[in-house]
Amino acid sequence: MELFRGLVVISLLVIILLQNSSNVQGRYHYHKTKNKSHNKAESPVSPAPDNVPEPQDPSVPSSPVNPPQIPSDPYPNDPAGNSSSDCIFDVTSYGAVGDGSTDDTSAFVAAWKAACAVESGVVLAPEGYVFMITSTIFSGPCKPGLVFQVDGCLMPPDGPDSWPEKDSRKQWLVFYRLNDMTFTGKGTIEGNGEKWWDLPCKPHRGPDGEASKGPCDSPALIRFFMSSNLVISNLRIQNSPQFHMKFDGCEGVLIQQLSISSPKLSPNTDGIHIENTKTVGIYNSLISNGDDCISIGTGCSDVDIEGVTCGPSHGISIGSLGVHNSQACVSNIKVSNAIIRDSDNGVRIKTWQGGTGSVSGISFQNIQMENVRNCMIIDQYYCMSKECLNQTSAVYVTDISYRNIKGTYDVRTPPIHFACSDTVPCTNITLSEVELLPEEGELIDDPFCWNAYGTEETVTIPPLNCLRDGEPESEGEVASYGC
Ligand SMILES: *[C@@H]1O[C@H](CO)[C@@H](O)[C@H](O)[C@H]1NC(C)=O
Ligand SMILES: *[C@@H]1O[C@H](CO)[C@@H](O)[C@H](O)[C@H]1NC(C)=O
Ligand SMILES: *[C@@H]1O[C@H](CO)[C@@H](O)[C@H](O)[C@H]1NC(C)=O
Ligand SMILES: *[C@@H]1O[C@H](CO)[C@@H](O)[C@H](O)[C@H]1NC(C)=O
After folding, report:
1. Active site residues
2. Is 390 close to ligand 3, i.e. is its CB under 6 Å away?
3. What is the pTM of this model?
């Protein structure tokens, strides 16, 4: 019954996402690339309708929800670009200067309010300008089909000293209480993060390589909160003071063709973080940064990640979960056709001791590793301080599959590390076609497992002799574990 209800909800959401993304396609005019001569010959008679999706090239990993194509023209259905301009709210028409130093916040807020009030309104930050705005909450509800389109450059004030005293230091752009909204454009969101990374409170920035004490808030660049049916596409997002994108309390999120980048040593600059968010697709994006490429927190389910390239980064991470004895539930996460390179971790599941709940139904498939530490890691002893006491409860980790994971690892750590709880073992781990070779030199430590149960369908390289067959005796008691 529970499962059935779940399936119905998921199907509905998929339908909503499908409709949503085809709406998006309908709004943009985009150029056909295939069978040009054929189209040309036909076009004087009847031009192809814009809302018919292109057939997908099978060699490119594609999302199952008909992703929007690259928008190239913000003025849909009109070659002269005039007839639909009543839906375009250009921030320069609301007084934005876009010289990189004038505070354009009020113009953005005014354009937002106007666009929010009409169906399919477009807030446009045009090409050729650099807009600076302060921490702002763009809130709904709005009329459906709202588009926030950045074709130019949009950025926050440069560092903590320029940050207005009255503004939150935890977030910059916030989108709140929206349904059916698109954030897109061919422009750049420049985070101006450098002065935040250099604060003495940040790891390794203090006088002796130690972080100094004291408040250390740094803003997440873009936050979506309590919103549904979102499409985020095409933008270049870079140099965030902290997380680049954060989703909390959202449902139905399609992320496509983003490019996220920050330097390798920038602290806490996670690429995309989701928590309490359901039905998410993250496709065909490039992420390089100083922390997790994608991190998945508690309360997430039905997340599909495909065609993502990470690196340098700290890999794709589920967790950390169960901190301060909390309950965490994460289920049905699929990561496929990914490349992870020059990263501190590959695919990771990390939980604190003392938590409850479960991580279940996780599939890692077709992942290429290039010079990665801890290519495959489950750590149920996650601890920031190295002073965590052993506790008996733990977030249960089960039904985890690793298929076709190949490439090279950095020999400083074993490529496979499954450290499961003494009292709540990991169960039903499946490995198939896992082949990991040293990037250079020799393997120093063999793969490690502790209390990890599962099966190898094919022989793993390097050999994994530590996985336990069958099921632990206590498994029945923990199986549901509150989720
Ligand atoms: C392109 O044209 C060829 C030959 O006319 C046809 O077989 C093919 O299906 C067409 N492809 C598309 C995407 O229209
Ligand atoms: C469309 O707008 C442009 C520039 O604003 C103008 O020059 C042109 O005459 C307009 N075209 C029509 C058909 O209104
Ligand atoms: C916690 O348990 C692990 C695994 O049994 C053991 O190696 C470690 O020494 C224990 N730590 C403490 C602080 O008791
Ligand atoms: C083990 O996990 C797989 C998914 O990886 C799932 O299909 C299967 O049903 C699970 N087996 C058991 C016995 O729970």
Report:
1. 314
2. yes
3. 0.79
